[in-house]
Fold this sequence. Notes:
Blueprint: E1 3-4, H1 5-11, E2 15-17, E3 27-28, E4 30-31, E5 41-44, E6 61-65, E7 75-78, H2 81-92, E8 108-109, E9 114-115, E10 120-121, E11 126-127, E12 132-133, E13 138-139, E14 144-145, E15 150-151, E16 156-157, E17 162-163, E18 168-169, E19 174-175, E20 180-183, E21 188-191, E22 194-197, E23 203-206, E24 211-212, E25 217-219, E26 225-228, E27 233-234, E28 239-240, E29 245-246, E30 251-252, E31 257-258, E32 263-264, E33 269-270, E34 275-276, E35 281-282, E36 287-288, E37 293-294, E38 303-305, E39 310-311, H3 312-323, H4 325-357
Parallel strand pairs: 4-5, 5-6, 6-7, 8-11, 9-12, 10-13, 11-14, 12-15, 13-16, 14-17, 15-18, 16-19, 17-20, 18-23, 19-24, 20-25, 23-26, 24-27, 25-28, 26-29, 27-30, 28-31, 30-33, 31-34, 32-35, 33-36, 34-37, 36-38
Antiparallel strand pairs: 1-3, 2-7, 21-22, 38-39
Amino acid sequence: MSVSISKVAKLVDGQLVQPAHSTVELKITSASTLETATGGAITLVDSVERLPSLTQSKAAAAIVPTGAGPQDRPTIEVSDVHQAFSIIIQHFRPQRTQGRLGVSPQAAIDPSARLAGNVEVLPLAFVGPDVELAEGVVLHPGVRIGAGCKIGAGTTIFANAVLYDDTVVGKGCIIHSNAVLGAYGFGYKPDLSGLKLSSQLGWVELGDHVEVGAGTTIDRGTYGPTIIGSGTKIDNLVMIAHNCRIGQHNMICSQVGVAGSTSTGEWVIMAGQCGLRDHIHIGDGAVLGARSGVSNDVPAKQTVLGEPAIDLKQRKLQLASMSKLPEMRKQVKRLLKRVEELEQGSRGSTEESSSKAA
């Protein structure tokens, strides 16, 4: 399938900018990234600073930010590069769709489960006793929904995800493959017989429009819920421990670990591989930089970095100082040598004066 560059511009409501030497309207046959694009493909450059990289690409044309100006090939200027490119990608590579299959006879569904209309339960999914599936829920193969779970309307749960008993999921959520919600919290008390598992009487509760990444685990509370606020997006391989209360619209990147009973406000960002100790609070709008070790409360709208995590400006000063340590070491050695020379000279003068006095 090929589309003229002018039609692509209309598709994304963009401004077509042709290079001066262009005489024939270009035909676009595909969409791809800068590095992988071949002849006939349109690509994207999402900032003016990255425009020089376009010269190294084999793409025939590019989506660029408004005001980028003429380039060495046709471009389409738009206000939101990624949104426009998504539209183009879907035009050339539309998502695969499959008709609704309903409830498969190969799914195991307890007779006491309550399924609303337009629910889809695919083969080998398991739905336990007293489960409630609201309108439009989709359970992929291998999903296991424990007793008493409640799944909100329009939620999709991908293959092999496991929801332990009494998990509550809001509407419009996405739970990716192999996620586990409601496993026992890691709480033990030593006694004469060894380590005794603490009470596991709580559950996990997700608000509306939450996304849980593949392989992510969210443990049940000890007595009450572990809560994930509405609109929060959790990446793959994240660990959230028992009794945590994650606020609304948080973004939690891959390999973050949140220890028990920690809470966050709204719009918090945790970059990759952050580690948060237990019983602390992260304020609204705070940003935890990648690989931060957070051992204390973080105030609202503060950005921290490092291990232990401290204010970003202070951390940058530390890093700048550390980078100067080799030169500072040389300077100290020169100063020590100079001091030694001065001391030797002083001792020689003293001895000479003593000799003359004698």
